[in-house]
Amino acid sequence: MNPVLDIDNLVVSLGKHAQAPRIIDGVSLQVAQGETLCLVGESGSGKSVTSLTVMGLLPKGSLVASGGSVKLVGEELLTAGDRRLRQLRATTMAMIFQEPMTALNPVVPVGRQIDEVLRAHTDLDARARRKRILEMMEQVRLPEVERIFASYPHRLSGGQRQRIMIAMALVLEPKLLIADEPTTALDVTTQKQILTLIRDLQRDHGTAVLFITHDMGVVAEIADRVAVMRQGRLVETGALDTILRKPTMEYTRNLLSSVPSLVPRAPRTDSSEPVVLEANELGKVYRERSWFGKTREVAAAKDVTLTLRKGRTLGIVGESGSGKSTVARCIVRLIDPTSGGIRLAGREISELSHRLLQPHRKKIQIVFQDPYRSLNPRITIGETIAEGPINYGMPHTRALEKARELLELVDLPPDAISRYPHQFSGGQRQRIAIARALALEPDVLVADEAVSALDVSVQAQVLELLDEIQSRLGIALLFITHDLRVAAQICDVVAVMQHGRIVEQGPAAQVLAHPKEAYTRALLDAAPGRSWDFAKFRPVSSGVAAN
Amino acid sequence: MAIETLPEPSIPITTPLRPRLGFLTATPIIATATICLLLIIAIALLAPWLAPHDPLLLAPAQRLKPSSAQFLLGTDGYGRDVLSRIIYGSRISLLIGLGTAVLAIGIGLVIGLVSGFFRWVDAVMMRAMDGLMAIPSVLLAIAVVSLSGASVMTVLVAITIPEIPRVARLVRSVVLSAREEPYVEAAISVGSSLPKIMWRHLMPNTIAPLIVQGSYVCASAILTEAILSFLGAGISTETPTWGNIMAEGRAYFQIKPSLIFWPGLLLSIAILSVNLIGDAARDALDPRMKQREGGQ
C-alpha cells in the first residue's frame, strides 16, 4: 500500500544558491494510513521546517525546498501551485500547532472559525455545517458543545482550545494530520487527555499522523514509529520499541540517556545542617478593586510552609497556576507576600522595607526560566555577573576577576567575559545566569523552572552543574518545576502544589514513588512515558523504586 | 549523565548598538535626503562665507529687484539680498530643529523613565501630559512667546513644551514593557539601586525609538518655527528666518512670488529629508517594521 506521506531525500536550503546552507539535508520519511510517526529532535534539528515544507508554509524567499520530493497520497507537493496547496490543506492535510491561543483568532467565536473551513471547502448549507461542527466538537469530547460553539477563545481553557484546533483540523477528515508539539504548552494532566484523544480519533478515522515533539515521554505514549533528527539530517528511523530498547546510533542513545528518570534518585542521608530558609504560612492575595461592588480576591498562594536546610534541595512541583512561581517570587521578595513569614538564615525578611532588605538580598538569589530574557542583551557577560558584587561594594576590577572565576566554575571559557548574551546558546546563557546568581555567594539559590526551556541534553548538563555546585559550595536549592522527572532527579524533599496550597510534602523518594494524595497520584499517572526508563533502555518494572 | 555536546555555532563577535550608519545610503531616495540635509547643514555652518551680501543691509533704492548677477535671487521689499537671507535663515531653522529635539528628548526621557517606574508619579504626570497634548501646539507656542517676548530662546522653549508629552509617553511605554523583563528582576535581586536599574537596564531600551522620534520632533520644530515667524509670533522680523522671509514676501506675492517660493522650497526639502532619514532609521533599528510593510 502506498504511504499517505512520502518524503524522499528532501533538501531545504537557506536561499536559492546552489551552495546555500542546508537546513534540511536529505531527509526521507514515510507515514502510512493509520500510523503515527513521531519526529523527535532537539531545537534547531529541522523537525518543524520539515513539517512546514509539507504544508507548503515555508517563509517565502528565505527558505527554499531545493531538492527531493514530497508526495501526499501520490501527488507531488513541492511543485504544486499555491491554489492547489490551499485546496489540499484542510481537505487532505491539516496541522495543529503548539500554542492554540495564538493559532485561533481571538475576536471570532470558535464555532465560526471551524465554520470558515467548511465554507471554504464544502458546499454544505448553514444547517448542515452547524450539525457537522457540533458532531466534530463532540468527537473531540468538548462539554456543552452548543455553548462552546458560540464562545470566544479566551473563554476556553488551554486544553479546550487545543481540542477546538483538533476539531478544526479533522472536520474535513484529512488523510494526514501534522501535529507540531501540540501538547508542549499544556499541563501534564491535559496533555494526557489530548494524547489519548489524538490516538482515538486516529483509530476511528484512519488518519496518518506526523507528530513532532522534543519529549521522549510523549513519544513513548503515542508513536508507532520514531524518526530521530539532528541538525537537519535523519539520524535513525525505526519502530517505537526498537528505538527505545536498542537504538543503533550514538546520538539516539545519548538523547535517551539524558531523559531524567521518574524513579527518584537514592535519598541522601538526613541532614543535620542548619536551616537556611523557612517559609511560615506564606500567603499572597491579589486584590482587584472594581469601581462598583466589592473587591475581588484571588489567593495565588495560601499557607505555604517550607523548610530548607543548607546543602539540600527542596522542589516545588505543580501545574501552571498552582502558585509555585508566586511562592518563589515572594521568597526572593520580588513581590511582597500578603501574609506569613520568611526566615532567611535566621532573620525574618518578609516585613523588611526595600532599603532594610538590601543587605539580605545577597543571601538569596534566583535563576529564571527563560535564558533569552534574563540577561540584559546590551551588557557584556562580565559586567552582568559583576553587577551584584559591585552593588555590595566590591571594586570593579576585583568583581570582573571574580566573574572570570565563576565562568570557569560553570564551565564557560574565561574570554566569555567580554562577549554579549546573543553570542551564546540557551544552555550557555543559563550557565551565565547561574554564575550571576552565585557571584553574591548566596545561601539559597532559587531556580524558577530554570531547566524547562532547555533541550534534554542541555538540561541534563545544567542539572549536573547545579548538583556539582551544591556539593562544592554547600548551597541550598529551592527548585521550582512542573517536570516530575527533573524533580525526581534533583530534589531531596518535594512539595506538590495545587490551587495555591501545598497538597503533599515529604522526601522525594516517598512522594514520587508512593504518593499519599490523589492529586499527586494523578500528576504521576499523567507524566508521559512513565512506564519507560529511557536511560536504561527498558520499561520500568512495576514496584521498583529507589527505596 | 555525561553526554556529547553539540558543537556551538560560531558567532562573530559584534557589539549591539554600535552605530551603524549604513542605512543612510540604503536606497537612492534616502541617500538623496542625506545629501540634501548635509548640504543644508553645510550652508548653515558656512553662512558668513557663502552669503554674497549682508542679510540685514537695507537698500531702499534696490527694492524688489529681479534675479541678476549681483542679486542671484533678487531683493526683497527693503532691498535686502534674498539669497543671503535664505542662507542665514537656515541657521535659525536648524538651531531650532536640533535644539527642540535635544531639549524635548532630554526632558521627556526623565519624565517618561520616572512615570514608567513609579505608579503614583505616573498617574499625576500622565494627566499633566494629557492636558498639554490637548492644547494645539502652535497656539501654546504663541501664548508662551507673547507672554515672554520673542527671542530665539523663548521660541525654542515654546516649541519644545508641546513636544515633551509625545517623547514622555513613548519612553513610558518602553519602560512599562521593559520593566517586566526577567533581566530587570534579576537586577533587583542582585541588589541594584533604582537609579542604576533605570539607567543601565531600562534607559538603553529607549535609545532606538528616541532616535526615530527625535527626527520627527526636529522636522516638526522647523515647521512650527516657520509657522510662528510667518504668523508674526516668532523671532523678531529683522532676523532672517525662512518663516520671516515668507511672511514679508506675502505682501509682494503677486509681483514677486519667488520671495515665498525659495524659502518654502528649502523648508520642504529640509523637513522631507529629516523625515525620510527618520523613517530609514526606524527601519534600520526595528527590522520588524520593515517586514510588516513588505507584507510578509
Model description:
The complex is a heterodimer of chains A (547) and B (296). Chain A is an alpha/beta fold and 547 residues long. Chain A is built from 20 helices and 22 strands. Chain A has a six-stranded mixed sheet, sandwiched between helices. Chain A has a six-stranded mixed sheet with strand order 16-17-18-13-19-20, with helices on both faces. In chain A, strands 2-1-4-5 form a four-stranded antiparallel sheet, covered by helices on one side. With 296 residues, chain B is mainly alpha-helical. Chain B has eleven helices and no strands. Chain B has helices spanning 28-45, 47-50, 82-117, 119-134, 137-148, 152-178, 182-189, 194-231, 242-249, 258-285, 287-294. The longest helix of chain B has 38 residues, at 194-231. Chain B is elongated, with a radius of gyration of 24 Å. The relative contact order of chain B is 0.14. At the A-B interface, helix 11, strand 16, helix 14, helix 16 and helix 17 of A face helix 7 and helix 8 of B.
What fraction, in percent, of the residue positions of chain B are helical? 55-70%
| Gap from first CA to last CA of chain A | 50 Å
* Envelope shape of chain B: elongated
What is the beta-strand fraction of chain B?
A: under 5%
Which assembly state applies to the chains in this document?
heterodimer
| E-strand count of chain A | 22
Shape of chain A: globular
Radius of gyration of chain B: 24 Å
- Order of secondary-structure elements of chain B: HHHHHHHHHHH
- How many helices of chain B? The count is 11
Report the average pLDDT across residues of chain A. 89
Please report the number of helical segments of chain A: 20
Largest sheet of chain A: 6 strands, mixed
Number of strands of chain B: 0
